[in-house]
Amino acid sequence: MKKITVWIVALLVSVSSIIDLRSSAQVVPSDGGDTDTGAISIDCGFTQDNLDANGFFYEADDAEFVESGKIYNISSPYYNTDSQEQVWQQLKTVRSFPQGKRNCYTLKDKQAKNNNYLITVYMLYGNYDNKNSIPSFHLHLGVNFWTEIKFENASVIRRKTVAQISTTDYIDVCLINIGQGIPFISLLELWPLSNSIYRASSSLLPLGLITCVNLGVSEDLKFIRYPEDMYGRSWFNGQLENSERFNTSEAIYNEVNEYKLPSEVLGSAVRAKNDSSSLYINTLKLIDFTADNEHYVYLHFFDFEEHSQGQVRSMNITFTDDIREYVDLKSKDVYTLVRRIPKGVLVDRISITSTPGSGLPPMINAYEIYRALPQPNSPTHEQDVATLRNIKHAYSIMRISWQGDPCRPQRYSWEGVTCNYSDSIPRVTSLNMRSSKLTGEMATSFSDLMMLETLDLSNNQLTGDIPESLAKLPSLKLLNLTGNNLTGSIPKALREKSTTGLTLILDGNPRLCQTGSCKTNTKKFIKPLVASAASLAVLAIIVYISLMLHKHKTIAKVLSSKKDGRIKSKNHGFSQAEVHGITNDFATEIGVGGFGKVYLGRLKDGTQVAVKLLSQSSQQGLSEFQSEAKLLSLIYHRNLVSLVGYCDDGDMRALIYEYMAKGNLRNLLSDNNPNILKWNERLEVALDVACGLDYLHNGCKPPIIHRDIKSSNILLNESMQAKIADLGLSKAFANDTDTHISTRPAGTFGYLDPEFHRSGNLNKKSDVYSFGIILLELLTGQRAITVTSEGTRHISDWVNPKLENGDIQAIVDPRLEGKFSTASAWKFLEIAMSCITPTAIQRPDISSVVVDLKQCLAMEMPLESGESSSLISNTTLETSYSQSGSYSPPSAR
Ligand SMILES: *[C@@H]1O[C@H](CO)[C@@H](O)[C@H](O)[C@H]1NC(C)=O
Ligand SMILES: *[C@@H]1O[C@H](CO)[C@@H](O)[C@H](O)[C@H]1NC(C)=O
Ligand SMILES: *[C@@H]1O[C@H](CO)[C@@H](O)[C@H](O)[C@H]1NC(C)=O
Ligand SMILES: *[C@@H]1O[C@H](CO)[C@@H](O)[C@H](O)[C@H]1NC(C)=O
Ligand SMILES: *[C@@H]1O[C@H](CO)[C@@H](O)[C@H](O)[C@H]1NC(C)=O
Ligand SMILES: *[C@@H]1O[C@H](CO)[C@@H](O)[C@H](O)[C@H]1NC(C)=O
Ligand SMILES: *[C@@H]1O[C@H](CO)[C@@H](O)[C@H](O)[C@H]1NC(C)=O
Ligand SMILES: *[C@@H]1O[C@H](CO)[C@@H](O)[C@H](O)[C@H]1NC(C)=O
Ligand SMILES: *[C@@H]1O[C@H](CO)[C@@H](O)[C@H](O)[C@H]1NC(C)=O
Description:
The protein has 893 residues and is an alpha+beta fold. The two termini are 48 Å apart. It binds 2-acetamido-2-deoxy-beta-D-glucopyranose (9 copies). One 2-acetamido-2-deoxy-beta-D-glucopyranose (NAG) binds at residues 874, 876.
């Protein structure tokens, strides 16, 4: 969302998930909203947001991420525009850290904790400081050593990558000065990964990348990274001796593989010259068996060759005499073999051999090797970390050591902070902020440092009351507040505590009432409360804003109208009180969408509505919420779920949609639904959806591309009228002629245009493809993706062989029990197949699909009365469908 595309139309968000909840017990999480790569890339040393040639977004390097250091340009002799590095522009600037032992970038993803990330740093010295002295330094990931950085010369680009399950809410990447020159950094990237990949088997050890090699492409090909790779990896070309390259140009569904291997990686491979020779990957330099690390080897296979009937490519993969794996590939299998190499095991090469009788030579597409990084240190207790970070921000404390974790590693702990290390998780026991120029009220946050024994805030300019909550700290022994400007009286609880072991030092606060006989006014009790409520609110706002800034910075710049603040639209605006009334105080929750929860409501006139509330922790955020409301109020069509009103009152923001009583199409087609949809109902649903899509594509100027057409986004109302929902990913383009390189994979696995995936080209035909998949679902009753014991199967792979046999009876949903006309089923199938041709250009415009579906419906009309299956033909039909996608329906029906 933060990329090239200027026209972002964020619209309806999954009202669909509403119904998921109600009609089946299972909650299907909405995948509306965020299909951004989610990457955060920081162009270190450059103070503006910018895009590279691929439209990939780089954040400005500012205080949002780092608080220290100086920025520089590298010297021009080191500019290398010919470099294969696509990130070349981003390497022209650096941030260097002359001060302090440890300097950190702090990355706050919206849900960092327990999620998996690929973190990559780049460094190019380029004589940025004109001193021609190349430094060497260390990197830490959080509280532990990551890697050492050294350079052969000033023009070397150093890249380090690590995959890590974050254990904290923040991800700190720290540069450590080891006395061998000033650390610096050129580029820092954070990419979210699936949580199930690149993980050490038994622990949360991060995996440091050693090598990531793509095999089988010609030497002149540049290396592969974003946008081909949506996980932020860089694939380098490699060769294996004694091998030959081969490749395929077939469209590849890389979603089939949880590693999201780029088509370019899957589509090329090497194989042995004959089935009795082997492939060897030399690993002697890659797997350091002398080190105290385990290693992980990932071997990626996609057997794109056609095999003769039932033939299996059976391979014997030998790491050592004791470590051996077997891989059997059927034609079109995608498979990643993960092998852990225990500490101290010498693997000098990996050999891949065909087992006797396989009949096919061994092959491999790509491999990666990672080293598990030991994690001797645990981070400080998270509440202590959060509290200290709050205090730091509340008082704008600029201390060079106050970066990264407060207690760990111990030698870099924060100045003035003392920790107890007797547990594996350190706790803060003392905070000394004497003479630190603190101003303003004394924050109640200090009392969140639960293990605090001494707190010294002496010689500052703190005002207001002493928070009574400090008395709750069980171990507090010394509170030194001398030399401030505190007021009010000493809280009773603190006075009591001072008789049982707490030393209170309060002199030098002329306006503080030290005796017990102060003027009693309620103020002193209320004020701390107000203060704490206020500081909480401020905190919440800061957290919210920083989250939002993070994700939506560019949208803010792009949708300048957002600055209007409050929504103004022709739709009806509701007050907070009205929303409470409509939803009966949010009595009936019917789902969770990208914004937040969705409630059932009823307007005064009795109309049922779905009320979607923007939650504070919303992933979509205010600006998208507002643009959604705005844009939804601009378009209307009977086959789009419509907006009834909105609420933007006080702190409540909600969108109110028409209520779709019958739920979503996916559920209606599922086996759980006893009232299976009749054939003519299915035809009408298809036509409705096509009409809605036609409106978006051809009725709107600029055209709107939905990007997430799928059966769970098709909702039906009481009278079985189908409407498209969840326009949350939609984009409108002012200029259809521009190339719309999409910077993120939009949409849902199973419905994604294979061509979009290869080219990143976003256009109407991607929606047509997804629509074709819905047609197949309607026809067959199958899901777009079926999970079988052998992996996942795409609906087109299920239909194709049957289609080749001309067997329409085997294709049509058996639950229709033959109650459909073969002619219209054929016609319908023909339309569906034309929509899902692999090349976009061969797919019809949705407007002609509308025409064809109407014809199809006309054929079926005689059956409308509902009875008889007399039209069923048992003729086995010949089909002239061919793989190329030029499909002509059989003439004999
Ligand atoms: C880096 O170069 C740009 C353009 O040449 C210039 O505007 C900028 O001031 C330079 N920055 C530094 C820190 O020298
Ligand atoms: C810098 O070092 C790299 C790696 O050793 C080498 O390939 C390159 O030629 C060197 N460049 C210069 C200018 O010395
Ligand atoms: C695929 O193989 C053909 C024939 O060997 C070759 O000309 C072509 O460059 C290869 N494509 C890639 C992407 O390596
Ligand atoms: C297979 O290839 C190897 C090496 O390229 C060669 O030595 C061997 O003779 C070949 N075997 C057959 C059966 O062609
Ligand atoms: C696998 O290969 C190893 C060595 O290359 C060999 O010793 C072993 O017998 C092979 N196993 C099978 C089942 O082919
Ligand atoms: C309290 O703070 C003052 C001023 O910093 C200092 O002189 C005094 O020694 C402190 N008292 C204790 C007990 O630490
Ligand atoms: C203390 O606060 C009062 C009012 O807030 C102010 O007038 C006074 O100058 C302050 N005293 C010092 C020493 O800062
Ligand atoms: C569309 O492109 C044309 C030509 O490139 C340009 O003149 C026009 O201003 C563009 N329209 C918009 C809305 O950007
Ligand atoms: C089709 O129907 C005819 C006549 O009803 C019958 O003789 C024939 O066996 C049927 N064919 C199939 C394949 O069921």
